[in-house]
Amino acid sequence: MGNRFSCKTKSTHNNGSKSSRRFAGGNRSQRKLQTDEELLHMQALSLAIQHHQASQRFEGSMSRRIGSTSSRRKSNPVSDPVLNNSTPKQQKQSPEFLENLETKKIVLIHGEGFGAWCWYKTIALLEESGMIPTALDLTGSGIDLKDTNHVTTLEEYSKPLIDYLQNLPEDDKVILVGHSSGGACVSYALEHFQQKISKAIFLCGTMVSDGQKPYDVFAEQLGSAELFMKESKFLIHGNGKDNPPTGFMFEKQQMRGLYFNQSPAKDIALAMVSMRPIPLGPIMQNLSLSKEKYGTGRRFYIQTLEDHALSPDIQEKLVRENPPEGVFKIKGSDHCPFFSKPQSLHKILLEIAQIA
C-alpha cells in the first residue's frame, strides 16, 4: 500500500485538583465546553431554517449547496481531544498555508440518507481556516424535492455533483470528500472529471474497485445484495409490492446503533428529523473505473475506528485491496465523524489539503 498517514489524538485526563483555584478553573473549562457546543447547535438550527426557507422559494430543480454562513463562531468547539492539545498555529492556519495550496475549494458529499445539513460543523471549521467549503444535496436528498423512488442510477443520484464540476472554470480544481456511500459518487466523478479534482477523500466511504457496486462494501454486515433485495425489512416498494424495491430506510433505533454510537444527543436528534429514504438503484449499480482516469486520481482514506455501520476491519480491507495514496485514522469516531469528532476530521482535511 502507498504511504500511510495516521492521525493520533491524545486524550486529556484531569488527574484531580488539590486546590480550590484548580477546581474553579476546571469548572470554567467545563462551562466553556458547554457554551461552545451550544453555539454549534445554534448554527445547526440556523442552517435548518435556511434549508426550510430555500425549499419554500425553489421548485427543486436547482442544485442546492451550503457554502457560506453569515455568522462566524468566535471560538473553536471542544468536541474532541484534538483542540485541547492544539497550538494556536494548529487552530487557525496562516495566510502562507493558504497561498501554498493547489486549491482552497472543498466539496462535501454526504452519505446514504443524509444531506448537506450533516456538514454544518465541518463547514464552520473550514471557513474559519480560510478554506472554501461547499456541501451538496445529492438528488432526492436533503431539501432536493426529487422523489427517491424515481432515482434509479448513480449518474442521476450524482447529478448535483456532476453539474457543479461541469460549471467549474476550465483551470479550476477542487478537493472532493465523500462520506459513506457518497464515496461512490466521488469515484464516479474521478472517472469522468479527473482533471478537475485535486484530491479525492473517502470518509469511511465506499471506495470500490472496478466492477464493484457500492452495496458490496456493506455486504458482510447486511448480507448479499440478492438476499437484501428479497428479504430486508427496511425495503421501500415505491412502485407497489409486486415490483422490485426502489429504496430503503432503517428504523430510527437501527440508525442510532449503526451511525451514531459516539455522536452527541443533539446531533442524533437533528439526524432523526432530517434523514431521508435511500434510493436503491445507485448503490446496486456496478461502477466502471479505468486505470487511465480513476486510477490516476489522488485518493486518500479516513478510517473511523468505532464505526458500527462500516467496521474498521472492512475499512482496512478496502484500503488494502484498492490502496490510496494515504490513510488517516480517527480514534473514538462512529460512522459520522462530522458529528462525533469534528475537530479531528477538520485537522485531517487540512493535512490532506497541504500534501503536495
UniProtKB/TrEMBL annotation:
Residues 1-32, 51-96 are annotated as: Disordered. Keywords: Hydrolase. Residues 1-18, 66-94 have a biased composition (Polar residues). It comes from Helianthus annuus. It comes from the Eukaryota. Residues 106-343 form the AB hydrolase-1 domain. GO terms for biological process: jasmonic acid metabolic process; salicylic acid metabolic process. GO terms for molecular function: methyl indole-3-acetate esterase activity; methyl jasmonate esterase activity; methyl salicylate esterase activity. Coiled coil: none annotated. It holds the Pfam family Abhydrolase_6. This is Alpha/beta hydrolase-1. Signal peptide: none annotated. InterPro entries: AB_hydrolase_1 (IPR000073), AB_hydrolase_fold (IPR029058), MES/HNL (IPR045889).
